[in-house]
Amino acid sequence: MHKLKRYERFADDIAELIRTGVLLPNQRVPSVRHASRTYGVSPATVFKAYYLLEDRGLIQARERSGYYVREHAQRPLQQPGIGPRQLHATEVGVSELVFSVLGSLKDPHTVPFGSAFPSPDLFPLGRLARSMGQSLRRLKPFDVIADMTAGNADLRRQIALRYRLSGALLAQEELVITNGALEALNLCLQAVTVPGDLVAIEAPAFYAALQVLERLKLKAVEIPVHPRTGIDLQVLEDSLARLPIKACWLMSSFQNPLGASLSAASGQAVAALLQRYQVPLIEDDVYAELYYGSQPPRPLKYYDQQGLFMHCGSFSKSLAPGYRVGWVAAGRFAEKVSQLKLMTTLSPSVPAQAAIADYLQQGGYDRHLRKLRHQLQAQQAAMLASAARHFPASTKVTQPQGGYFLWFEFPEQVDALKLFRLALAHGISLAPGPIFSATRGFGHCARLNHGHPWGAQSEQAMAVLGQLLQHEASVATTEDAVADVQPSVGA
Amino acid sequence: MHKLKRYERFADDIAELIRTGVLLPNQRVPSVRHASRTYGVSPATVFKAYYLLEDRGLIQARERSGYYVREHAQRPLQQPGIGPRQLHATEVGVSELVFSVLGSLKDPHTVPFGSAFPSPDLFPLGRLARSMGQSLRRLKPFDVIADMTAGNADLRRQIALRYRLSGALLAQEELVITNGALEALNLCLQAVTVPGDLVAIEAPAFYAALQVLERLKLKAVEIPVHPRTGIDLQVLEDSLARLPIKACWLMSSFQNPLGASLSAASGQAVAALLQRYQVPLIEDDVYAELYYGSQPPRPLKYYDQQGLFMHCGSFSKSLAPGYRVGWVAAGRFAEKVSQLKLMTTLSPSVPAQAAIADYLQQGGYDRHLRKLRHQLQAQQAAMLASAARHFPASTKVTQPQGGYFLWFEFPEQVDALKLFRLALAHGISLAPGPIFSATRGFGHCARLNHGHPWGAQSEQAMAVLGQLLQHEASVATTEDAVADVQPSVGA
User: Coiled coil: which residue ranges (chains A, B) (predicted)?
Assistant: First the structure.
């Protein structure tokens, strides 16, 4: 969609040097003159690239001395490794745990590290409201009924256009507009399974995927995910070869909760595997627009030659939270998915569809997205730095190149569910590891949300978490940790 | 909600005389002076009552001679009887048939007798758009996320208030806002059943109920419905006594497709039965607001002492089609239903909820409803009169006291599915009987929608249907009926 400018490409190169540790924290980045000469770009391009990197929170200017890598731009904590492989299917029973975590987020005074959403302050709600007004004035009464079945025609056109601009050619008829991506995922899974079937999912996985499996009485075959490179190809292949797997549900980019992304080569390999075994893919790609680099990641759907892959997207995480408008490009399953939708909810809200269609037509979505990505990346840097200051040194943490989640692996003695309860008593929410696992694994892990503007309250909350962690890591058996730490952080 | 005025009570009395045939078509209604003396009401009250009856299409003024019963005010066609009783459970497989009917409604030029919705022109879409604008300006960013789980607080208050005004006291916590009533019905059924369970439903029944049963692999126990008095109490009791029924899904008022309503006594009896056998009720009450009389019908939920009844309502048929906002007062199952919603669609659109809440707070809903009811009643009278003019004399038809459906029982030789195809070739849709039955019964019946303003096109469409019916009734075996009748009606 967004054609890469030269200064953006150059900024990406420098960011990669920082990420991989070639440029270290507090190290001076090449001077403008030096960089211009070395990389063969104009001084203006270097200036613009450095300005962009400063905006992303990776470097900072020091008066009269040039640009330096920020202290927290590079990861001071280690990256976690991959989980154990398990070649068997598991009945799922995680819902109650998830609901207790979700329930903890209702209080607006709780520090929302456990939230699944970025801050609604990051979205153009005013502009959307104007689009709503304009589109409702234009909407003819018959549209209100007609748009219920196929979905708003303008919206479907706009979504198809965005696919086309990103290189994926698909027929508009493949698109089904849904009540958020969550409904799309539910319907896709129902379209290709019956109760008792085996479904390959990631470990750890988005908890809603586990809940859907539980509700539909499907069995999970957990495939380990590497925190940086994504799903384990070898285990996936073994599982497909040895078990009668009926569907595969995965996130190719900024996987929830790990933030892992498949490389282009791995993506192509996964796509080839699924096609070889003729296993339908349900691709949850709700963070697709939240990449920090200058190029969007390529979904597996891109490699779909046979209509076997269902690609689920949403505006909830990138534009319009609460509007509940998502979609699926469902390939050969489009009619089945559409029929299931007619039977269960009939249609997403017509005004919400029309408002988003108008917003997309007016333009400005890509500008909003660029700003949003920079904010999320800067907030990630702030949370990483804060974790390095406060958490035990043996803590491991991911550093995804998109989205708004960090995944922490704490010292083994830490019980994430206990930590969840202790933190909540201090007005801080978090998403404990076990809710992301059919087998209740990841007991010493947690997902923290950095989708909210960073401030003193966030910093203080990290300090409290740090104290709780230090205490738990040293005396994991005592139950009186609550009394030992700072008072609560929530206002 | 609406306290009955004296002239409205008097108008209802006269309407009942017309309905029961005490006053016949073209008969003069009592003069104002006579009525005033006989019934002990003021002349002004009589005047207002007659004006109201004229508005409802039941009587008309003739110059210098007073008011007369309109020709089509009373039913010239017979009422149908009750279907056969079947004390066994049936696997459901009706979906494909339903989708072919639904698909026929997409063309805006088709005469929409087969539609499930009233004309969107009957709704205050402009006023709703203004409420949308106002509520979006008021909405705080955090609300966008908070309103997703519990639902918009103002909306829940307004719905609870309307229950309270109608005499049903319920806790706001019992209310779950859903994507239309259809999602509510789906979730309720899931909350109390597992695949393979038996569910008591009506015969004929709303086709979506059959589709949900099919999708959830539940078995239908069909209880016959009398076209005027509703579900057969004796068969229901026998079924509950002899079969392990896990839930009962029914419509107590203006049942779809028959339009039947339970009397207060029958309603109380059904409620007592379900409570005796401890069978949860899923009460589909989406036409509750569309009553023609002066008093709202009383839902079975009114008699619920144990939180056993789930009462599903919606704004889709009475205020805001396409907004997809419904709800359920789910009694003791509220938490379970709410959790199922979080797992499948998360939430209905927050702006749509806020707009309806604002509209309800502004007032004017009851005024709109009174106007809507009069329109629907007048359109019913027009369709009944037209059917009497054009359809075979042996056709039977219901005359519901609310809603916007008529149920026709044609001569036995008529194949409703063939009629559906023939009519569609002439640009006319209808809902053939078999889509309302798990056992593909009602082969010579159809449901016709009178929810659209009556005009020359409607009249012509009825004439074409009449010709098709006369032809089918006389030579039911020939297949060349299409050529024999008028050209198509659709614009």
Answer: none
